[in-house]
Design a protein that fits this description.
Elements: H1 2-26, E1 35-39, H2 43-51, H3 70-86, E2 88-89, H4 92-96, E3 108-109, H5 111-124, E4 132-138, E5 144-152, E6 155-160, E7 163-168, E8 175-181, E9 184-191
Parallel strand pairs: 2-3
Antiparallel strand pairs: 1-9, 4-5, 4-8, 5-6, 6-7, 8-9
Helix pairs in contact: 3-5
Length: 203
């Protein structure tokens, strides 16, 4: 039975992987985020950097996006799903008694804590921090939210604590505001709207 289940899961994963890549080809102009200039650092990240300066002093130059293949797809899907189920969602006010506090979660956390955990797990798997970018978005209801952007040669994909599935950023319902710079983990850059993205542009 285990063998059959394993085969079924593999087939499902391969179908999702193939479907995602097909969607990226169809929407090549929006598969990659276009970033603007330097912008303000979120206060929670600023305070996180003061506590853990080594987290925000990573310099990366000329790092190519990760090569998307079945194994890499399985890695990011598994990390996203496993970490989503590992942590119980609670607000910073419920956990720490303050509005904003970024930290690695143990058993509970809010959106940016999930992002930090996924980023660390993927870095420990050998993924460059230049391709694992904390990203600030606005949900359809106007509430702020944080997700992890994974840069690949097939597009920018989003790991989100609100959903176990991994999607290309242009297929999510969010308004994208800013993300970490690829060359400096302590700096942030703005993100342009999808309608302004030029075909073939990669940042």
């Amino acid at each position: 039975m285990f063998g059959v289940e394993g085969v079924v899961k593999t087939i499902v994963a391969m179908a999702l992987f193939a479907g995602t890549l097909g969607a990226n080809v169809a929407f090549a102009s929006e598969a990659f985020m276009t970033t603007g200039g330097l912008t303000s650092q979120p206060i929670g990240h600023y305070e996180f950097c003061k506590r853990l300066p080594e987290e925000c002093s990573i310099r990366s130059r000329n790092v190519m996006p990760e090569k998307m293949n079945h194994d890499f797809w399985q890695l990011i899907v598994n990390v996203n799903s496993n970490d989503n189920h590992k942590i119980k969602p609670l607000t910073d006010m419920e956990i720490y008694g303050v509005e904003e506090y970024w930290a690695y979660p143990d058993k509970v956390g809010d959106c940016e804590d999930y992002v930090l955990l996924k980023r660390r797990d993927l870095m420990q798997s050998g993924i460059s921090p230049a391709n694992l970018l904390i990203t600030v978005v606005r949900k359809p209801d106007g509430e702020g939210h944080a997700v992890l952007t994974v840069r690949t040669d097939k597009g920018d994909f989003v790991l989100d604590n609100l959903v176990d599935g991994v999607k290309n950023w242009s297929e999510t319902p969010y308004t994208y505001l800013k993300r970490q710079a690829t060359n400096n983990s302590g700096r942030w850059v703005s993100i342009e709207a999808p309608t302004n993205i030029l075909v073939g542009s990669v940042q």
